[in-house]
Amino acid sequence: MTNNRAHTVLAGLDGIRTHLEEVYQDLHRHPELGLREHRTAGKVAEALRSFGYEVTEGVGGTGVIGVLENGDGPAVMARADMDALPVREQTGLPYASTATVTAPDGTEQPVMHACGHDMHVTCLLGCARLLAEDRDTWRGTFVALFQPSEENGDGAEAMIADGLTSRAPRPDVVLAQHVLPYPAGYVGTRPGPFLSAADSLRITVHGRGAHGSMPQAAVDPVVMAAMIVVRLQTVVSRELAATTPAVLTVGSIHAGTGPNVIPDSAVIELNVRTYDDATRSHVLDAITRIVRAECEASRSPQEPEIERTTSFPPTVNDEAATRRVAEAFAAHFGDDAHTIDLQTASEDMSEIPGAFGVPFTYWGIGCVDPDRYAEAAREGTLDQDIPVNHSPAFAPLLQPTLDTGVRALTVAALAWLGT
């Protein structure tokens, strides 16, 4: 029955496809960084009102909520993120971004939709319009939520702090999706852990500066930092079981100003990816233990400073909600519906259903030319030949990616919305 209703609602896609493609291209040309999505939010709010939604703007800064009540029945919330990245686009698309902003240091900073959030916004607008135009097919309440600043990890939190749970109906389920470097037309669900938690740390270790020719008078923070970096490589390889996925990457070390000066301090920046709270706590505790021990072993004159700079929760899909969506996808998409692998990317979306205390499910859709993907897979060059999210060359194939995203959100929503 759900599949038949989805086909009825989706029959309207042919009539709005060209308009949706124009919306996507416009959003791609005009990317905006987190909490600056004023133009995007204005376009979203204008569209939702034209569809007949009750609209609330400015939630958490630039967030938008659209509510369509259509009789008694379940409430479904679908979320899309809106922000772009400080990346200079190198896709060669006719609608490529040339946008720039002024960075805090006064330099010109390029901006690009390098993660596909423009596709997410367009797909949710398409779903919202189709549901509004065929209200005889379903009953309940549909909530379209457009979130700012996912890339900074503070957009969901900002909406919650600004009264999200009192400004939107409490949903029975929250739905979300993300474009990923799989063949376009692909949809992939996964119950349980799907996206990793991500924690970024800045560690400052303190020494005692001296002339490079007089190391006996110094406590060398460069050596201290080097020993910490080497020892951190053992956390995943020697403290976790081989079947427990985790990543610990040291991405930055800064110390000193010249070759013959031993500095007073060194700064290490690192990132951790884990999939459950127990592993997350173990790895973060191990980092603290190792840093403090190495500083003590090096006779550091001061305790190290360990600061968590960003933090994303793990995305753990509700088993029952994911099963319901997976069954609906299998009925609608057939062989294009898959179980997707664990992903090392991270999201803050789960904070929204967490604030309401409701289940959620989050899935992936492919966005790569299928022929190009298949050729790279045959050659074993997927990592080299297929640009991934955040790459300056990341360019979702417009179709069938857009159609797939609209269909997936609509099919998933109708798995709850009653007759």
- The gross shape turns out to be elongated
Helix content: 25-40%
Structural class of the secondary elements? alpha+beta
Which blocks of ≥5 consecutive residues have pLDDT under 50?
none
How many runs of DSSP E, i.e. beta strands? 18
Tell me the β content: 25-35%
The biggest beta sheet, please? 8 strands, mixed
Rg value: 24 Å
What gap, in angstroms, lies between the N and C termini? 9 Å
Q: What tags apply to this protein structure?
A:
419 residues; alpha+beta; 8-stranded mixed β-sheet; 4-stranded antiparallel β-sheet; 13 helices
Summarize the topology:
Elements: H1 2-10, H2 13-29, H3 38-51, E1 54-59, E2 63-70, E3 75-81, E4 100-102, E5 108-110, H4 117-133, E6 140-147, H5 155-161, H6 164-167, E7 173-183, E8 187-189, E9 192-195, E10 197-206, E11 210-211, H7 221-239, E12 246-255, E13 261-262, E14 265-274, H8 277-297, E15 305-312, E16 315-317, H9 319-333, E17 337-339, H10 351-356, E18 360-368, H11 370-379, H12 382-385, H13 398-414
Parallel strand pairs: 3-6, 3-7, 7-18, 8-17
Antiparallel strand pairs: 1-2, 2-6, 4-5, 8-18, 9-16, 10-14, 10-15, 11-13, 12-14
